[in-house]
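User:
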Amino acid sequence: MTDADAISKVLIVDYVTATTFWQPVIDGQGTFANYVDIAGTTPILVAGPYLVRNATLDGQTLSVNGDLNMTTTLQVFGRGSINHVQWNGQDLKLSKTAWGSLSATLPGPKRNTVSLPSLKDLTWKYADSLPEIHDGYDDSKWINADHTTTTSKFPRYYGGPWNLSIASDYGYHVCYTSYLVTN
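Assistant: Predicted structure:
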C-alpha cells in the first residue's frame, strides 16, 4: 500500500470492546528497535484477544503472540500487503471482512478440572515477618526519625501532622521500612 492508497478508518466501539484492541510495536533495527518513534512502529491494530504480548512483521506475514480467555474472533487491521497471520506460532485460516480487516477464529483455552485439597485439613507453615508488633519487642536500638530536612529529590508522601522522614536519610535504601510512632 502506498500513501496515495491509504484510507483512514474510524472505529467506534463500546468500552468492553475497546479493551480487546491492541497496537503492538513492530521492532525496527538497531539499539532502540522496540522504541516507538525511534525505530519501532505500530502499523497494525489487533482486535479480539484477551492479551497481545508482541507481534512481528516479516514481509507479508504477521506473527502475533498472546493469551486468550475464551474463543474469540481475531481481527487484524493493517497494511494491505499482510496476507498471512500466525497466532502463537500457528498459521490461521483468514477471511477478509467487508471493512478490509483480516479475520480468524481463535479457539479458547481448554477447561481443565483442578482438584484442590481441603485447605482446612492442611498443615500451614508461616514465618513471623513483623516481630515489632508483639508485646515486649525491644526497639531501643532503633534510630530516631527526627530529621526535619532531606537530601531526597522526591517529595514526601505525607504532609499535615505527619512528617514521615525519608528512610534513605537514615541509611536504609532497600526493602520495607517500619515506623514506630510513640507519644
